[in-house]
Design goal:
This protein has about 170 residues and is mostly helical. About 65% of the residues lie in helices and about 0% in strands. It contains 6 helices and no strands. The longest helix has 28 residues. The two termini are about 20 Å apart.
């Protein structure tokens, strides 16, 4: 939201491809899900506060429009892809066919490529990335199954309720 406020004020925002940040990560599933819900609520909140950015003739506007896809993609993933995938694994192809199951190896490949690029950036910074093949497979295959429904719930909560209980202040 801060970045969008800066753009709305007429300033430019840069990108640092080798920026590296360390933060505290959630330690439990409940904390993780609540974090993702807060982030999703923040996206909707940013659109409510800075919707005018969608209609400014600037290159950055393209990236703000791009963010409009996330709620839609999260919703489709949660309500169609996950149930379709589960049914396809059971041999019921009402929503997704056998070809959909080929998305799983593709997910592994894309996530490996992202890991490889990020590892190179870490090495450039003199940081070591630990090896955890099982954790990587779990992340690549199951992260979205937890993430997208949590995001959808966060969007829903922001749209129907203004009450926030972050527990951070």
């Amino acid at each position: 939201m801060l970045t969008w406020a800066i753009l709305k004020a007429g300033y430019r925002v840069g990108f640092a491809e080798n920026a590296c940040l360390f933060t505290n990560a959630p330690e439990t599933w409940k904390q993780f899900i609540r974090q993702r819900q807060r982030w999703s609520r923040g996206l909707i909140e940013a659109f409510k506060a800075h919707w005018q950015l969608l209609f400014q003739a600037r290159m950055s506007t393209l990236f703000i429009w791009w963010n409009l896809l996330f709620p839609y993609m999260d919703l489709v993933y949660t309500l169609a892809f996950i149930p379709g995938l589960l049914l396809a694994c059971l041999g019921i192809y009402w929503i997704a066919g056998p070809m959909t199951l080929l998305v799983l190896p593709l997910a592994l490949l894309v996530n490996y490529l992202m890991f490889h690029v990020q590892s190179a950036m870490f090495r450039e910074q003199g940081l070591k990335v630990r090896s955890n093949p099982l954790g990587f497979v779990f992340y690549a295959l199951f992260y979205s199954i937890v993430l997208q429904p949590a995001c959808v719930w966060g969007y829903f909560k922001e749209i129907v309720s203004r009450t926030k209980h972050w527990g951070t202040k």
